[in-house]
Design a protein that fits this description.
Elements: H1 6-19, H2 26-43, E1 47-59, E2 62-69, E3 78-81, E4 85-92, E5 100-103, E6 129-135, E7 141-147, E8 157-163, E9 177-186, H3 191-201, E10 210-213, E11 229-233, E12 238-245, E13 251-256, E14 261-266, E15 269-276, E16 278-281, E17 286-292, E18 299-307, E19 320-326, H4 345-354, E20 373-384, E21 402-407, E22 410-412, H5 420-426, E23 461-463, E24 466-469, E25 473-481, E26 490-494, E27 499-506, H6 511-514, E28 524-526, E29 528-531, E30 535-543, E31 547-553, E32 564-569
Parallel strand pairs: 1-4, 3-8, 9-12, 11-19, 20-25, 22-23, 24-32
Antiparallel strand pairs: 1-2, 4-6, 5-7, 7-8, 9-10, 12-17, 13-16, 13-18, 14-15, 14-17, 18-19, 20-21, 25-30, 26-29, 26-31, 27-28, 27-30, 31-32
Helix pairs in contact: 1-2
The structure holds 2-acetamido-2-deoxy-beta-D-glucopyranose (NAG) (11 copies).
One 2-acetamido-2-deoxy-beta-D-glucopyranose (NAG) is lined by residues 472, 544, 572, 577.
Catalytic activity: 4 hydroquinone + O2 = 4 benzosemiquinone + 2 H2O
Domain Plastocyanin-like: 52-166, 178-329, 436-572
Subcellular location: Secreted, Extracellular space, Apoplast
Length: 589
């Protein structure tokens, strides 16, 4: 059954209602219709329609067909309030399979709306649609939505801004204006082709050609003088910049010439105010900062360049810029901030570790004190056997093999016949196995570079191993980066939950020493943790949401290589702690 567009429907109702009354003058009637339309519209505003389709745009001296929502890059910003119900009808007019993930949304009892293909749903086939329904409860701040199939999220993404309920305020002074800043990554190519080329050869896929701010590369790139994001500010006013790293494969430094920023939230969780001249943001993460226009009226560049923790590999070393123009300033060449060096790990580490959670803020929950499940998970790269037989062909990765990646030496492979959530709900065997280990199968000197190409441990194999958790279990995970192939800072994203980040450090995690570093008082809360390069991070969360929740590296190059696993959280005993049945229109495989 096709549902009529509710806005059109309501407008028609409003007209019908008013047409039946004859006591209004024409003007009053028109005004009343408009007024009523606006009231009804705001009442029903959580109904959102998005169309994902081909869109041709000019960037960097060329024209490129991209997949885009409603013909815009980035896609539309969705504005909601805490406590709202969101109903999003997604129409797939692409030639590709599609699904949309609501990054950072808790999806309490609405796992069917989480989005990752083969995890919580099968893809929306070309020409089909799916309606995502979920509540935004117990979280406020900046989140975002993006495609969760292949590399489509490069251009299929947008901001999801959750404001406090009406009548409630931020735990910081009300900003004059709020501005989403989406940092992106651009290829002069079809990103699906770029990904497939890499996966076919086993080599690393092509690097991007540019970074972008709100879809624009900025005037340091060729043919881009009028492809530069501009923000006009009033001197003396304070702006809330909602910074989202929507890039596929790169962490970014973000700076504004002559201006400090005050961090007030990350990943839609409030932080203690933290003043900095540089924000570091990994793919998947968001950072809300207050920017006060307290400089002389002039133009100032905002700029983002990559933080590259891995040594000796080629990367996109370009810089994207936008311009902050003070109202009334004479036209001038914008001042440029001093960029961080690409390998400036000390700056990244300082930023990432200095943030603390706002214990007096709304929705603060202290970290669990008691731990039911202790997990130690190695994360990093490895090699997958080339797999070509007969003709002795070699693959494009190191040693003639394929690039791989794993957690506890299990290189994650999504199922293809059915989503894991359907298998969970219907008790279907053979889609995943519940033997993801709590410890790595082999204890070795994880971060010793001498192990980078140790042939006895570098190979890994594909499987679909998940970790089963009892409802409401508390979980502690030590994430330990390995030196296999090379050390690298991996942003690990957990679906369905925020975790508290208790501690982070370099080298091999040592429980006797490092347990003393745990911050159990005001740890930062996140959905994506950038695990220090050649180091470790400790997080805790409470598994109070039944369903199937991916945990994976948010560098899209590493996800198909296998840097992932999933938690299967069992139902609780009461109806209000059980996953409801799937919606009728859940896409079929
Ligand atoms: C997307 O475009 C459709 C059709 O123009 C429109 O009805 C819808 O409101 C747009 N969605 C958003 C979120 O802007
Ligand atoms: C959309 O773009 C893809 C990739 O460029 C192309 O193969 C396809 O034919 C296009 N579809 C339409 C309807 O234009
Ligand atoms: C959202 O919350 C409302 C009110 O509590 C509830 O009736 C509804 O089932 C929830 N929807 C989803 C998708 O969880
Ligand atoms: C990747 O880069 C190589 C070398 O520049 C180029 O030949 C190839 O076409 C690129 N692949 C894609 C899918 O754009
Ligand atoms: C600026 O944009 C216009 C319209 O998109 C285009 O015709 C023009 O060539 C662009 N100018 C430069 C310098 O890129
Ligand atoms: C970026 O890399 C290219 C190619 O290696 C090099 O020529 C260029 O100097 C680098 N630019 C920066 C800013 O490091
Ligand atoms: C901030 O980071 C620096 C460098 O890592 C460290 O010395 C300092 O103690 C940190 N401050 C806080 C409040 O965490
Ligand atoms: C190719 O593979 C066959 C069968 O595994 C093996 O006997 C042969 O020595 C290989 N040739 C080369 C050049 O490696
Ligand atoms: C790496 O191996 C070399 C040669 O065996 C050795 O001298 C060095 O100490 C090793 N490095 C580490 C960190 O173990
Ligand atoms: C990972 O498993 C493979 C076999 O699948 C084994 O050869 C390798 O030594 C293991 N490596 C580690 C680090 O456990
Ligand atoms: C989950 O555990 C917390 C802490 O022990 C407890 O307060 C809460 O009631 C539990 N929830 C359920 C539904 O059992």
């Amino acid at each position: 059954m096709a549902m009529a567009h509710p806005q059109v429907f309501l407008f028609a109702c409003a007209i019908a209602l008013l047409a039946s009354s004859s006591m209004f003058s024409a003007e009053v009637t028109l005004l009343s219709i408009l007024f009523m339309y606006i009231i009804l519209l705001s009442f029903f505003s959580p109904y959102i329609y998005i169309y994902v389709q081909n869109h041709t745009i000019s960037r960097l001296c060329g024209r490129q067909v991209i997949s885009a929502v409603n013909g815009s890059l980035p896609g539309p910003t969705l504005h909601v309030r805490e406590g709202d119900t969101l109903v999003v009808h997604v129409f797939n007019k692409l030639p590709y399979d599609l699904s949309i993930h609501w990054h950072g949304v808790f999806q309490l009892l609405s796992g069917w709306a989480d989005g990752p293909e083969f995890a919580t749903q099968c893809a929306i086939r070309p020409g089909n649609s799916y309606t995502y329904r979920f509540n935004l409860t117990g979280q406020e701040g900046t989140l975002w939505w993006h495609a969760h199939v292949s590399w489509l999220r490069a251009t299929v993404h947008g901001a999801l801004i959750i404001r406090p309920k009406r009548g409630r305020s931020y735990p910081f002074p009300k900003p004059y204006r709020e501005v989403p800043i989406l940092l992106g990554e651009w290829w002069n190519a079809n990103v699906v082709d770029v990904e497939n080329e890499g996966l076919t050869s086993g080599a690393a896929p092509n690097n991007s050609n540019a970074y972008t701010i709100n879809g624009q590369p900025g005037d340091l790139y060729p043919c881009s003088s009028n492809k530069t994001y501009k923000l006009i500010v009033k001197q003396g006013k304070t702006y809330l910049l909602r910074i989202i790293n929507a890039a596929l494969n790169n962490q970014l430094f973000f700076k504004i010439a002559n201006h400090n920023m005050k961090v007030v939230a990350v990943d839609a969780a409030y932080t203690n105010p933290y003043i900095t001249d540089v924000v570091v943001v990994a793919p998947g993460q968001t950072t809300d900062v207050l920017l006060t226009a307290n400089q002389a009226p002039a133009s100032y560049y905002m700029a983002a360049n990559p933080y590259v923790s891995v040594a000796g590999v080629p990367f996109d070393n370009t810089t994207t810029t936008g311009i902050i123009v003070y109202e009334g300033a004479k036209p001038s060449t914008p001042k440029m901030p001093i960029l961080q060096a690409f390998n400036d790990t000390p700056t990244a580490h300082k930023f990432f570790t200095n943030l603390t959670g706002l214990v007096t803020g709304p929705f603060w929950v202290p970290p669990p004190r008691q731990v039911d499940e202790h997990m130690f998970i190695t994360i990093g790269l490895g090699l997958i056997a080339c797999g070509k037989t007969g003709n002795n062909a070699t693959c494009g990765g190191p040693n003639g093999q394929r690039f791989g990646a794993s957690m506890n030496n299990a290189s994650f492979q999504l199922p293809t016949k059915m989503s894991m959530l359907e298998a969970f709900f219907n008790n279907v065997k053979g889609i995943y196995t519940t033997d993801f280990p709590n410890q790595p199968p082999l204890i070795f000197d994880y971060t010793n570079p001498n192990n980078s190409f140790n042939p006895s441990i570098i190979m890994t194999t594909k499987s679909t191993k998940v970790k089963k958790l009892k409802y409401n279990a508390t979980v502690e995970i030590v994430m330990q980066n390995t030196a296999l192939i090379g050390v690298e800072n991996h942003p690990i994203h957990l679906h369905g939950f925020n975790f508290h980040v208790l501690a982070q450090g370099f080298g091999n995690y040592n429980p006797t020493i490092d347990k003393n570093k745990f911050n159990l008082f005001n740890p930062q809360e996140r959905n994506t943790i950038a695990v220090p390069v050649g180091g470790w991070a400790v997080v805790r969360f409470r598994a109070n949401n039944p369903g199937v929740w991916l945990m994976h590296c948010h560098l899209d190059v590493h996800l198909p290589w296998g840097l992932a696993t999933a938690f299967v959280v069992e139902n609780g005993r009461t109806p209000s702690t059980k996953l409801p049945p799937p919606p009728q229109d859940l896409p079929k495989c």
